Amino acid sequence: METQAPANGSVPGSNPQSPATRRRFLIAAGKSVAALVSVGAIVAAVRFVYPPSRRWLRWPRIVAPFQAVAAVESLPLGEWKLCALGSDNDEPMKKRAVWVRREGDKPDAFRVLSAACTHAGCPVAWRSDRKLFVCPCHGGTYDAQGNQKSGPPKRPLDAVDYQIKDGQLLVRSDDV
Ligand code: FES
């Protein structure tokens, strides 16, 4: 004997209020939550291994605070200069800084690099005699463009976004 499906499309014999249907719904919801938690855990783990200096891994920000670090005229042409962010009250070890090189007078003629070593975040120093950035912690070095050259660092120093406003160089502080 042939049975006919009900007009509302439900499976014959299944009741949307039945415990079996509810159980299936709860299992599917539980799997969705577990999948979301897993994705969050994976993203957090990747961010831990590759610190937040990788821009594409950063959480999106609605406000990008730019901080003034130096008057453009105070920056020597063609030389790296260390510029600190934050207030004078910050502990020296917590002070963040950027290396800035002014190549000319055009707004795009600056190179701004985070001073934090990409290995473990120690502040790198520019050695003009060796034309290298040198990290004091584990001896990592970077060339004059900020590309890693030797030692533990696996990637270049992070480039930092900047703006020129009213004669001041402003850098995006969450890049540092
Ligand atoms: S923190 Fe710079 S080489 Fe390790």
Give an overview in words.
This protein is of the alpha+beta class. It folds into 2 domains: 16-49; 62-175, Rieske [2Fe-2S] iron-sulphur domain (Rieske Iron-sulfur Protein). The chain is built from 1 helix and 10 strands, in the order αββββββββββ. The strands form 3 sheets. A 4-stranded antiparallel β-sheet has the order 5-6-7-8, with no helix packed on it. A 3-stranded antiparallel β-sheet has the order 1-10-9, with no helix packed on it. The longest helix is centred in the first third of the chain and has 31 residues, at 19-49. The radius of gyration is 27 Å and the shape is elongated. It starts with 18 loop residues before the first helix and ends with a strand. The structure holds FE2/S2 (inorganic) cluster. FE2/S2 (inorganic) cluster is lined by residues 117, 119-120, 122, 135, 137-138, 140, 151-153.
Query: Can you name the CATH architecture of the largest domain?
Result: 3-layer Sandwich
Number of domains: 2
CATH topology of the largest domain: Rieske Iron-sulfur Protein
| Major sheet: arrangement of strands | 5-6-7-8
How would you characterize the largest beta sheet? Answer: 4 strands, antiparallel
- List the uncertain runs: none
Number of helices: 1
Strand content: 15-25%
Write down the secondary-structure element order. HEEEEEEEEEE
Query: Which CATH class of the largest domain is shown?
Result: Mainly Beta
CATH superfamily of the largest domain: Rieske [2Fe-2S] iron-sulphur domain
- Secondary-structure-based class equals alpha+beta
Can you list the ligands bound to this structure?
Answer: FE2/S2 (inorganic) cluster
Give the beta-strand count. 10
